[in-house]
Amino acid sequence: MSADDCGRLLLLQAELDGELDAAGSAALAEHRANCPLCRQNESTIMDTRQALRHATYHRADPALLRAVAGRIGAVTPPPVSRMIFPWRGLATFGAGAALAAAILLTVLPLGRPDIVAALVDDHVRALQPGHLLDVVSTNQHTVKPWFDGRLDFAPPVKDLAADGFPLVGGRLDYLHGRSVAVLVYGRGKHIIELFVWPVAGRPGAPARAEHDGYNVVHWEANAMSFAAVSDLDPSGLEEFASDWRRAR
Q1: Which of 64, 66, 128, 232 has minimal Cβ neighbours within 10 Å of its Cβ?
Q2: Which of the listed residues 38, 69, 104 is the one where a domain comes to its end?
Q3: Which tens digits make up the pLDDT trace of 62-72?
Q4: pLDDT band at residue 160, thresholds of 50, 70 and 90?
């Protein structure tokens, strides 16, 4: 354990993400009242989140990517076109906070088989009882505000009930080093999960993949990356993706 962590840093992060139950939050609040380290860490996390909301993003040069990869023990750094760093507003938080923010904002290309596998694994895990939804609602105006303050971006939420894909709700998830939004839709007895995260650069062309019997359709638009995952047949999932892109 480091000198600046009393062992509850992950609990602090979980509480700020809305992932602790009432009993856990109460216990952490009692501890935090007598722990200056936790109060300091909580302040740092919240300040960093606030800075990220107003950050300007720039592509990292290869030398910086290699340096970051070396510090986190990565075997190979991610592609240059797929990593972005927030600079403005982070200087006061030191190298450690800036590095953490940079890692947090690493975007996720669908072209990598490990990303496809991770999306499907998260989808299968979410289908277990009690894991699918953090917010339950068929109203996009209820689901969208729920993400406010829980993510460093605002995911778009659309109502596709008229197209046969009713909204069920949403949740937070964690995918390859960053928090993502997951919007949950239905189609008959099938569940469709739409993973959403920020992306930099020009929108990529829609792509389709398959893993362990599950289908994945990915596209990018309006500085967001979308990956729909379901056991729905490929044509049905592509119809969902097309309806989503067309809807307002």
Answers
A1: 128
A2: 104
A3: 666 566 656 55
A4: very high
